[in-house]
Amino acid sequence: MKQKITLPSGFSFDGTNMLGEGRITEQELHQLAPRIACAAAAVDDIRRTGKARNHFSKDGNPEPVYFPRLPYPGDHSPNTPELLDQLKAFGESVRQNEDAVIFCGVGGSYLGGKVLYDCASSEFWPHRCDQLPSIFFSGNNVDSEDMTEIREWLEVLARNKKPLKVLLVPISKSGTTMETTTAFLYFYEYLSRHSDRFEVHGAVVTDNLMESGPLNRLAWKFGWPMFDVPVGIGGRFSVLSTPGMVVGAVLGLDLPELLRGARDMDEACRSGDIETNPALFNATLKYVSAASHGATIEVIMPYAMRLKALGEWYVQLLAESLGKRKNREGETVFYGRTPVVAIGTTDMHAQTQMHQEGRRDKVVQFLFVESWKGKLTVHNPFPEIAEYRGYEGLDAANALQAAMEANEEALSSDNRLNALYTLPELSEYTLGQLFYFLMLSIAYEGELADVDAYDQPGVEIYKKIMKAKLKR
Predict the structure, then answer these.
(1) Helices 428-449, 255-268: inter-axial angle, 10-degree rounding
(2) Which residues pair with 371 in a beta bridge?
């Protein structure tokens, strides 16, 4: 069977090292064919109807699933052409008028935007915008030291420009998320109290339908821009909607290109055939590795420092979507894999010993960006030192690829499960493809495992306990 799928864009998923003797066999995949067909049909139903079987909100009401509509701006999508125009105008205004921006959000209201920021601030980003305000992320943890450090940075910036114009952007569907609210209130109060040095502004991303929500009331009171957190888009699926794209807008990203990448990936993943549908192929291999080969841990290992945040985003996507006690029939299954973030080559010196010789309970996912080759060449200023002579003329990205390939080969030599995602470059288009590929892979695997990939009942348990503790 076909072991590697490459799309016209150059994006590829290579499952070669997941297959073969001592790993996943073609017979296993053949036996799973009816279940694969049902999973493909179920995701097609979600695309068409916006409904997932037996999916309910935390209140027990039927809830739509609209993430497959995000790549298609229009009347039936949370992303309308009007919204994209508003986001573009908002981003231009922020870049022209603000000196600093603090995005306040946690979970899906933070992780996707952080990926966009880390990628777009790279020297290798194709359309880098250097006319940016200073950008900070807070409210992703109740960490007083982190908030204090951001405040101190603002104070340093204010030495050169008074008043320093600071935009606060709280991102919270309810408007009451503890981490987000703590950061928002702290910075708003501090900046307002020191109006001789700071001029504070606001913009909110929240549920527009919740008219009594605190962020809604503040936006109306002060005339702040307000963007809707759309119905049917769970936080972990929201990077291609307002919580992620408001960050992209400020960064000056081409948001239509981001969505075009996702749209092209969706079109490439319409087939029910794992030999042509890369997301379905990926999901099937992960499902079999967990269900039949004991792979209860998944390591996401980009060979790029800028993509560490992508691994952190994927941790939430995988953990909240697939870590479920019960299946849709109410049977106890304890499904899911523990996600782990690693970075190549850094974690080859930290985690690879465990990957190579520890328990056979892991599947390792490598990610490589092709276009970084030829960007940085090393020269040896010490020709008299024989040990350094081999470094003269070294292409850093080629060395990075050699390290990754060595890691692949070493794992495969011991039948350790691993696969590779390759991007031709890092751009809005390819990021859109990658985000959507991973979200769609999770959707397919949820159907294969018969678990609801769109709820998070375990999260609600600690939230209720924490809320009670804070009221004491």
Answers:
(1) 40
(2) none
Burial status of residue 349 (CB atoms within 10 A of its CB: 0-12, 13-18, 19 or more): exposed
Rounded CA gap, 146 and 179, in Å?
Answer: 12
Q: Which of 21, 123, 211, 349 is catalytic?
A: 349
Catalytic, 312? Answer no
Euclidean distance between CA atoms 91 and 93, whole angstroms: 5
Could you state, in chain order, the average pLDDT of each consecutive group of 10 residues for the chain (472 residues)? 94 97 95 97 98 90 96 96 98 97 96 96 74 94 94 96 95 94 97 96 95 94 97 97 98 97 98 97 98 97 95 98 96 96 96 97 96 87 95 93 96 97 96 98 98 90 76 68
| Marked catalytic residue, from 4, 51, 326, 463 | 463
Does the annotation count 329 as an active-site position? no
Half-sphere exposure of 378 (CA within 13 A, CB side): 15
Annotated catalytic residue within 63, 98, 320, 445: 320
Q: Is the overall model pTM greater than 0.90, yes or no?
A: yes
Q: Is 320 annotated in the active site? A: yes
